[in-house]
Amino acid sequence: MMNASILKRMRAIVGSENVLDSLESRIAYSYDATAMKPQLPEVVVRPSTAEQISEIVKLANEENFPIVPRGSGTGLSGGALPLENSIVLLTNHWNHILEIDQENLTVAVEPGVITANLHAAVEKLGFLYPPDPGSSSICTVGGNVAENSGGLRGLKYGVTKNYVLGLEVVLPTGEILHTGGKSVKDVAGYDLKSVLVGSEGTLGIFTKILLKMIPKPEAYKTMLAFYSSMDDAAKTVSAIIAAKITPAMLEFLDNTTIRCVEDYAHLGLPIESEAILLIEVDGRNVVVEEDAVLIAEICKKHHATSIKVAQDERESTRLKVARRSAFTSLARVKPTTIMEDVAVPRADLARLVERIREIGKKNDVMIGNFGHAGDGNLHPNYMTDERDKEAFARAEKTVFEVEEAAIEMGGTITGEHGVGLYKKRLLEKMVGSPSVQMMRTLKQMMDPNNILNPGKVFDLKPKCEGRLPRDRDQIKKFEEVAWI
């Protein structure tokens, strides 16, 4: 247990009511959305100001204990899992939208703002914040920035990093850094915010975030196209892009997912279809109508068996349920679902889907595929039962082999979920030793005592034997007990 004198100092910083050390509180923050084993934190801390976070971080450096920043805990790479002898530092209660600046097209938020609430607030004023993670109804903006989250609108609008203009962040030494701002152009010095976005809680704790908005599109049109061949669906995706059309959404579901969604949501989907494409175009009214007609022609040319076009907003929302309920539908099949995340050049999408099928069949693991077809970003979902050690080992082996297949195709082990604990075993194989060493150098420079989220993304290799033994020993122990 954590030293009583350290707990006393924490309570003096944030108030006794904001230091949660009951077993119930510790259990509640011992896991995230992965299938990895939970680990109890020593204590959970709820600071209310950047200055309080700064003081907690300085105390951690002085007393040598790790801090794991946490938003809603919806991450899928183990990034918010506690380390032994660590504290969890919560920011999900910082949930205020601080300013919507319509003249400068910016919105300032606290890190605990729910992404869907941000969408609703700016859309009410005629604007759009495009990043749209699948968990947008429960995930926080701070977590999105830490993971550089993507989403369904990524093909046309990009991901979180494309909308971050400025940050207030508490560094691993306790200093408070301000970087970026409302200026459209700013190349004064190194682009520090780009280093911090996607750093997965290892380089800083976000306390204020300045984001870019865009005008809300005038109109949009949503459709579903059904295929008897995954290859035809993939060729449709390439043909749409080649026609110089950039849909706001270009998503797909495979047959396993289609069957599970229909069983769950009863949308009237043809369960014999091998693939469905969800396509949405947006923009000026006339352009949307023209693009929708052209896309329908392209779908027919590439052997779509049928096409459903939404006639109003209500029907559009219903069509999108097929994609948005994919994970929920698959998660009902077996007690444990491992939702994965790999990406390849989009021309290789069909090849990767087929490779995933082959690997799943070889290892006797049921896999449902859906994802962002326009980005080449797949979400294979491995249905298993963690109570069955042999079945779970086969699922774990399958995950690893699929990630290796993505690397072999020139892709990546993660398109949007992050590395965390879950994927770091293949990071060096993918990016190379020099890249990982540069990351380590940056981490050691910014966080000399390895305080913030240690053991995530990669392991540090201390320069001197005997330095920080707590980190080496406990990270090793953590990996032994926590790896899926």
Mind explaining what this structure looks like?
A hairpin with a 4-residue loop joins strand 5 and strand 6. The chain starts with a helix and ends with a helix. The protein has 17 helices and 19 strands. The chain has three domains: 1-216 and 433-484, Uridine Diphospho-n-acetylenolpyruvylglucosamine Reductase, domain 3, CATH 3.30.465.10; 219-327, Alpha-Beta Plaits, CATH 3.30.70.2190; 334-422, 2-Layer Sandwich (Alpha-Beta Plaits), CATH 3.30.70.2740. It has helices at 4-14, 23-28, 50-63, 115-123, 141-147, 154-157, 192-196, 230-242, 255-265, 285-301, 313-324, 326-331, 349-363, 389-408, 427-431, 433-446, 469-482, and strands at residues 19-20, 43-45, 67-70, 87-90, 97-101, 106-109, 127-128, 164-170, 176-180, 205-212, 214-215, 219-227, 249-254, 275-283, 306-309, 336-339, 342-343, 366-372, 377-384. Helix 13 runs antiparallel to helix 14. Strands 12, 13, 14, 15, 16, 17, 18 and 19 form an eight-stranded antiparallel beta sheet that branches. A five-stranded antiparallel beta sheet has the order 5-6-10-8-9. The chain is globular, with a radius of gyration of 23 Å. Helix content is 38%, strand content 20%. It is of the alpha+beta class and 484 residues long.
